[in-house]
Write a structure and sequence with these properties.
Chain A is an alpha+beta fold. Chain A is 31% helix and 26% strand. Chain B is of the alpha/beta class. The radius of gyration of chain B is 20 Å and the shape is globular. The chains are: A alpha+beta, B alpha/beta. Chains A and B meet through helix 1 and strand 4 of A and helix 5, strand 8, strand 9, helix 9 and helix 10 of B.
């Protein structure tokens, strides 16, 4: 079990009304599950109020980095004390 | 020998035509006007860019760049005039980038886009007008650049950038700038820039938010955000739900141009191995250090 920090950026911070939280988690899956439980509904409701409907869980429509590395490139799911998860929405338009 | 004589000739003409100008801070500059630069260009048969560069090398400022000099210096302006920038996509981000690069005094622009203007572009694509719907974006952009700055030459490519043609289309560019609207094309540009050993200024937007990163060939780049496998790439971002408003496009395009200026002039620090996240909804800018 590691104490980690989760930082919300850009529109997620704006819609959640908070910039960070801390979690005690066993591994990344555990951290994401806790994140969903704590913030998933609030984020979707906030977005719905703004006219945006999203299905799924936070990780389905977010870019998530662990200490600056995308979860897709991680070699291990383990977490260590002091790790930081960065979460923000993907922006692909131009 | 001939060239040296011609150079001296142009220098003499420029020096003879220079006038004094007192700037708002009281400093006096020697300057040449647009009309003078055009006249020397025509009479000596050399491009305006060469006249302006030669003037700057003598410490004589073309009036049009007077408000650039305090920020980047005479040497910086010379470097910009001697540079080529590739802009991939002449739509939202791209058209604002092109407009600002021409005003900044980039010597040559390579503009790549296979698309024509449509009504949906009018909200944010600065070169689209009600009168030019249906016209090719690169043709409109090239005309606009010529109207803004006769020293900036343009090469247009009215074709879609692909893995097969990317290197060839961007050949000669010192920097490539992202004016795209999809991830797969961005990865193609990133790869081409790595092969050409030039920096790539990535950016994208969605609603009130934008992202920006300058990627040098040795930097981590887009895989730090989207992973190393193309199988997991998202097709679309939040922009499909929250749109591409004009002010966000202009804001992020302006930051891209600042990156280009920093890269070319050496003034300031480009955003490398970091992602900049801009949220205009809360007027917040964050940066995240990226790992490999």
């Amino acid at each position: 079990m590691a104490l980690i920090t989760v930082r919300f950026y850009s529109l997620w911070r704006s819609y959640l009304g908070t910039d960070s939280t801390t979690l005690q988690a066993d591994d990344i899956q555990d951290a994401l599950a806790q994140l969903e439980e704590k913030f998933g509904r609030r984020l979707r409701e906030s977005l719905e109020t703004a006219g945006v409907h999203l299905d799924g869980r936070i990780e389905d429509y977010s870019l998530i980095l662990l200490n600056g590395i995308t979860l897709r490139n991680l070699e291990s799911n383990n977490l260590k004390e002091g790790d930081v998860l960065h979460i923000f929405p993907p922006a692909i338009g131009g | 020998m001939e060239t040296n004589r011609a150079d001296k000739d142009i220098r003499r003409y420029i020096a003879k035509s220079a006038e004094s100008y007192v700037a708002p801070d009281g400093k006096t500059y020697l300057v040449i006007s647009l009309k003078t630069a055009a006249s020397i260009s025509k009479s000596r048969g050399v491009p305006v860019k060469e006249v302006e560069t030669t003037a700057l090398q003598q410490g004589i400022i073309p009036c049009r760049y007077l408000r650039n000099i305090g920020t980047i210096g005479v040497e910086g302006q010379i470097k910009l005039l001697q540079s080529t920038v590739g802009v991939v996509g002449a739509g939202g981000l791209g058209s604002t980038v092109i407009e600002l690069l021409a005003r900044q005094g980039i010597g040559h622009l390579i503009i790549i886009d296979d698309d024509r203007f449509t009504e949906q572009n009018l909200n944010r694509q600065i070169m689209s007008t009600e009168g030019n719907l249906g016209e090719y974006k690169v043709m409109v952009a090239a005309k606009r650049v010529t109207e803004i700055n006769s020293a900036t030459s343009v090469t247009t490519s009215r074709e879609r950038l692909t893995g097969d043609n990317a290197q060839s289309l961007l050949s000669g560019a010192h920097v490539a700038v992202d004016g795209l609207d999809n991830l797969s094309s961005r990865l193609v540009v990133e790869q081409a820039c790595r092969q050409l050993a030039i920096p790539y200024v990535y950016a994208s937007i969605a609603g009130f938010s934008g992202q920006l990163m300058t990627i040098f060939p040795e930097d981590v780049g887009l895989s730090s955000l989207y992973g190393s496998s193309s199988r997991t790439l998202p097709e679309q971002g939040m922009e499909t739900k929250i749109g591409n408003p004009p002010a966000t496009v202009a804001m992020i395009a302006a930051l891209q141009v600042q990156e280009v200026v920093k890269i070319i002039t050496g003034v300031g620090t480009p955003v490398r191995n970091q992602i900049i996240l801009v949220d205009a909804r809360e007027c917040a800018i964050d940066r995240i250090q990226l790992g490999s």
